[in-house]
Amino acid sequence: MTQKKVQPARILMVEDDEDDVLFTQRAMEKGNIWNQLDVVRNGQQALDYLHHEHDYADPAAYPRPDLILLDLNLPGIDGREFLKRMSADPDLKNIPVAITSTSDYERDIEFGRAHGVQHYLIKPIQVDNLLQVFTTLPGFCLVFNKVIE
Fold it and tell me: Helix H segments across 2-126?
């Protein structure tokens, strides 16, 4: 019998507010979710990460994420512009995105839908919301307990 090693899903969070990053990390810890969470601070850094450019040139250190948690209100290239560029890129458009926002404006929700986003989370992010997003992603592997070797 051949054993297949399953890699835990990697999550890229595009967020400029350190408090929101900490709330998300705490929600993951509270849910006992130990997946890798990488954080970039704006849309340009996210594009660099996804294209393995500049500070993120090493694909082994910065592999393709299985999910992107995207804030809409970012400095520089904001979440809307990032999403437009990502959804127009054939190499990136199939990466699942969950918008994270403090607003529940219908125009923001519709903008996300128009660009293939299926999940919209209101901040601060709660563990139940994360689990709902994670469990709907095909092939997404959650790590519920951290194994210490």
Answer: 18-30, 43-51, 79-88, 106-114
**CB under 8 Å to 51, separation ≥6 — which residues?**
none
**Predicted pLDDT at 76:** 96
**What pTM value is reported for the model?**
0.90
Which region holds residue 76: left if phi is over 0, alpha if psi is between -120 and 50, else beta? left
The three-state secondary structure class of 36 is strand
b/e burial code for range 77-115 (CB count within 10 A of at least 16 → b): bbbbebbebbbeeeebeebbbbbbbeeeeeebeebbeeb
Q: What percent of the chain has pLDDT over 70?
A: 93
CA angle 27, 29, 30 (to 5 degrees): 60
Q: pLDDT tens digits, residue range 26-42?
A: 999 998 888 999 999 99
Q: Provide the 3-class DSSP secondary structure of residue 51.
A: helix
Alpha-carbon distance values, 22 to 25, 28, 113, 126 (Å): 5, 10, 27, 12
Separation between Cα atoms, residue 11 and residue 73, nearest integer Å: 19
Amino acid at 105: Y
